[in-house]
Amino acid sequence: MKAFYVILSILILSEATVLRTKENLAKNVTLDKYGFQPLCASCTGLITVASFILKFDVSEPVVLEFATIICKLFAKQPWAVCDGISSQFRDEFFYVFRRLANESPSQICGIILPDCADPTDPSEAGWKVDLPPKPKRKRVMKPKRPKISSPSQNLNILQLTDLHVDFEYKYPSEANCDDPVCCRISVADPKTASGYWGSVGKCDIPYWTVENMLSHINKTHLIDMVIMTGDYINHVDWEYSIEEHLSVLRKLHHLVQSTFPTTPIYWALGNHEGVPVNSFAPHTVDERFWPTWLYKEFQAMNTPWLSEGSDDSLLKRGSYSTQVMDGLKLISLNTGF
Predict the structure, then answer these.
(1) Which of 142, 171, 210, 248 is 20 to 30 Å from 295 by CA-CA measure?
(2) CA 297, 302, 308, 310 torsion: positive or negative?
């Protein structure tokens, strides 16, 4: 047992000495008279200990339980929400933590503690870039754009974004509940009743509202192109699953496609399409984290409107460009990648 503590102490001391130099630390960080940084040293030591402990798989449930408790106490969210979020990000968290902790524990401290960040490292919170002074520019008269007078040159484009459709929306239900998202549990006598078509507050939109809206648009407008710009999934991100996401995307795709059967429809990704939320892993990490299932689904949803060669980019990073018509190209960016 003594040997264990000796080894642990050596690990802490060896890693804790790999600290930021005085020149690389933020100016407001606290230094003692020997130029030592207690906060950063303590953080580095704790990260080293945590990294050592996490080498034993049995410790993961303990860390997750601790994270759930922190969420409950400080974020003041219900247990179900905190437990769900901890479980959602479990694999990503341990993968990133172990990778960074093995390479540089002080880098993790620089990410979570701005005062310990290296201003020359773009991955940390304290990254600073010195910009040159703003150049003086001469005022240039811009040529006037020609006015489009012929209606035949105009396109009627329907753009829908951030629908956040909730297929579990209930009416009547409580619109002001304790959870982050409400209107999902039927209540006979709610204090704040949900509306049939939706509710202002902590509720997402019901499916039948989207259905009615699209039907109305189709009857009252001549649409040349539809652009769907992401965030189709509800805000209940602690319950996200690949199966649920695929189900929602396919239902929405069928609805929009059946409403505008001959109209080009282009779909883009939003941050809530990831599982977990905001998760669009690059190809520099393990393949098990790649959202290939999502990119394949969006490839199918955008068919047959993509021009030749667009599939490769879409399947790789969820973004694409396509020729809509002569002189007009559509570019869809996956900014979460």
Answers:
(1) 210
(2) negative
Residue 42: which of 105, 95, 101 has the closest Cα?
105
Per-residue pLDDT of the chain (337 residues; tens, 9 = 90+): 444 343 444 344 444 434 444 444 445 555 444 344 677 888 888 777 777 777 766 678 877 887 788 788 777 888 899 999 889 999 998 888 888 877 777 777 877 777 777 777 777 667 778 888 888 877 766 665 555 444 457 899 999 999 999 999 999 999 999 999 999 999 888 999 999 999 998 999 999 999 999 999 999 999 999 999 999 999 999 999 999 999 999 999 999 999 999 999 999 999 999 999 999 999 999 999 999 999 999 999 999 899 888 999 999 999 999 999 888 999 999 999 8
Q: Are 235 and 164 in contact (CB under 8 A)?
A: yes
CB 19 within 8 Å of CB 44: yes
CATH 3.60.21 in the chain is located at 151-169+204-332
- Domain 151-169+204-332 fold is Purple Acid Phosphatase; chain A, domain 2 (3.60.21)
pTM of the full predicted structure?
0.77
Q: How far apart are CA 304 and CA 295, in angstroms?
A: 15
